[in-house]
């Protein structure tokens, strides 16, 4: 158990191998647009 | 509906409506804080720049719901991997069992040294996003100007306009020199938003200029915000400079 955890809203752009095993909790941003991009997706996090 | 980033970038040219990001609500943060507190005693929250998103406010409001708990909310003043580096280095510090206060200090040190700059293929997306005027767009488009954009003081700013890719690479190298102020690059990645040639050119130039092995320059796929404001064909570096006196193992530095 880590004493400190890190929270963020967009780690999905960080190369995955860098975040492996680190105490990071992520909340994705949501991209909205009439023609395309509704829904919550880690893949589209800011 | 979920789509891949590549698909998002391919769709961008045909979109009539400018895509925007919707911030997580304070309730989203409260839920995540509760989950994190099951595994940790204290939290360091690092958000996308408050200058371009209201996410930071949501994180602060949510923290008030945990009186007596240690939660530090930091505005990264960055986006994409320039924001991500702050998260990664702070998390490395946390994993190495540094104290809450030390993790906050590490995060702030990297924040001061995190940067992103990129060149787009066209001014069209900056215009659609309201970053330049119609006149600037019209004149720039006639001249086929390529904008160079950077995050400065928490906001996206137009820092250069060039007529050729080669000149854009030179402009980015010069900008990197300015913001580094003589410090060495600790870690770096390159945005590649359907811009293979430009990315390869930047990798070569950065590797030669800053004496970084090519394989140490990682790839990333850009953030949606950068994508929406600059469009396909965009590339540029996300990096931070080495912090003197960092605890060994917290920052990778060759």
Q: Tell me, briefly, the overall form of chain B.
A: globular
Q: Return the structural class of chain A.
A: mainly beta
Q: Number of helical segments of chain B?
A: 10
Assigned CATH class of the largest domain in chain B: Alpha Beta
Describe the sheet with the most strands of chain B.
6 strands, mixed
Largest interface: A-B, 40 and 66 residues
Task: Supply the number of helical segments of chain A.
Answer: 1
Q: Please compute the radius of gyration of chain A using only Cα atoms.
A: 13 Å
Q: What oligomeric state do these chains adopt? A: heterodimer
What's the total count of β strands of chain A? 3
**Strand order, biggest sheet of chain B?**
6-5-4-9-7-8
Biggest sheet strand line-up of chain A: 1-2
Q: Return the domain count of chain B.
A: 2
Average of per-residue pLDDT values of chain A: 66
Q: What is the count of structural domains of chain A?
A: 1
Shape of chain A: flat
Low-confidence stretches of chain B: none
Question: What is the percent of helical residues of chain A?
Answer: under 10%
Characterize the biggest β-sheet of chain A. 2 strands, parallel
Number of beta strands of chain B:
9
In short:
The complex is a heterodimer of chains A (about 45) and B (about 250). Chain A has about 45 residues and is mostly beta strands. Chain A has one helix at about 15-20, and strands spanning about 5-10, 25, 30.
What does this structure look like?
The complex is a heterodimer of chains A (46) and B (254). Chain A has 46 residues and is mostly beta strands. Chain A has one domain. Helices cover 9% and strands 24% of the residues of chain A. A two-stranded parallel sheet of chain A has the order 1-2. Chain B has 254 residues and is of the alpha/beta class. Chain B has 2 domains: 9-13 and 115-241, Hypothetical Protein Tm841, Chain: A,domain 3, CATH 3.30.1180.10; 26-114, 3-Layer(aba) Sandwich (Rossmann fold), CATH 3.40.50. Chain B is 43% helix and 22% strand. Chain B is built from 10 helices and 9 strands. Chain B has a 6-stranded mixed sheet with strand order 6-5-4-9-7-8, sandwiched between helices. The termini of chain B are far apart. The mean pLDDT of chain B is 87. The chains are: A mainly beta (46), B alpha/beta (254). Chains A and B meet through strand 1 and strand 3 of A and helix 1, strand 1, helix 2, strand 2 and helix 4 of B. Strand 1 (4-8) of chain A pairs parallel with strand 2 (42-47) of chain B.
